[in-house]
Design a protein that fits this description.
This protein has 309 residues and is mainly alpha-helical. The chain is built from 9 helices and 3 strands; from the N terminus they run ααααααααββαβ.
Length: 309
């Protein structure tokens, strides 16, 4: 019987009343059709590219196939994360599960770093010991891959932006560059026979992937570690709080994103008079909302000397 009553009680505790912040506990309104289509196209051509890359002995093509497999994993995780993030808050997860998207983006980025390391290792080996490559096959397959990547990028660009969708889009754009490099590799080998261009262009693509992935990795890590949002100046907030009439001091101040784009703040305010707290709180909330875009505020008042309400 208690278990049956837990959910209604949880819903009541999570309810937002008049005057409460309207932050998001759950991600709504995101269609999964775009990610599903992108996943299907990516998986299909990754298989085709892997097979042809193996038989043509092209590192550029194999690297691009590996990148597309990583893209497919990224898109799959994005779909899973969106499904999880749609779940409402519960008695066990009072903030909901919106951080699932950032977690998936972080995992995707780590996988990309492993791929970059593998490409770099193989490229160095082939620079030292060039291997024959069927340039014509590489050229045709890479051209088809570029078209597929353009289509997938277009589909994802029309989807509502999120850290995870952007991570998947970054992967696809990096893969597009891989396809372009494979096209160049195939063309040069076909017309000139210069085999070392294959690992050279693979290293170039690896560096581009590394650069784009590092940004997503930093952003998702910062969010997961509950860092201060990039758009907010932590020290400036402290200064503005002290400037509110009736506030004597600020301590134990924390600012973070509850969900992407929804900052929250908690802290202790030392005030001149506890009787004036309702007025001071209203002034503080108005200032934080207007000057810093923060409407989820939890503050504890303390009188001079440490007494609190």
């Amino acid at each position: 019987m208690p278990a049956q009553q837990a959910e209604p009680a949880s819903e009541h505790l999570h309810a937002h009343l008049d005057g409460d912040a309207r932050h998001a506990h759950v991600i709504e309104g995101r269609s999964q059709a775009a990610l599903s289509l992108a996943l299907g196209l990516t998986l299909l051509f990754a298989l085709i590219e892997a097979v042809t890359g193996f038989f043509s002995n092209s590192l550029a093509l194999i690297s691009d196939a590996g990148h597309m497999v990583t893209d497919a994993a990224a898109l799959g995780l994005a779909l899973l994360a969106q499904a999880i993030a749609r779940r409402p808050p519960s008695a066990r997860h009072s903030f909901g599960l919106v951080r699932a998207e950032a977690l998936a983006a972080f995992v995707n980025s780590l996988a990309m770093l492993l791929l970059v390391a593998w490409i770099a290792w193989e490229a160095v080996q082939r620079l030292l010991h060039p291997e024959p490559v069927q340039g014509g096959v590489v050229l045709v397959v890479a051209a088809i891959g570029a078209a597929i990547n353009l289509l997938v990028a277009w589909v994802l660009s029309r989807e509502e932006a999120s850290i995870n969708t952007r991570a998947a889009l970054v992967n696809v754009l990096g893969d597009l560059l891989g396809s372009v490099a494979a096209i160049a590799s195939g063309a040069i080998i076909y017309f000139t026979g210069w085999l070392r261009v294959d690992p050279i262009l693979s290293l170039f693509v690896a560096m581009l992937i590394l650069r784009s992935t590092s940004g997503i990795l930093r952003e998702s890590y910062h969010f997961l570690m509950e860092g201060v949002p990039a758009s907010i100046d932590y020290l400036e907030i402290g200064t503005h709080l002290k400037a509110v009439d009736g506030v004597l001091g600020v301590h134990d101040l924390h600012v973070w994103d509850m969900s992407p784009g929804h900052p929250a703040l908690i802290g202790h305010l030392e005030i001149a008079s506890l009787e004036r707290w309702p007025t001071v709180l209203e002034d503080v909330r108005a200032m934080l909302r207007e000057r810093h875009g923060i409407d989820h505020v939890t503050l504890q008042p303390e009188a001079a000397g440490g007494k609190s309400l």
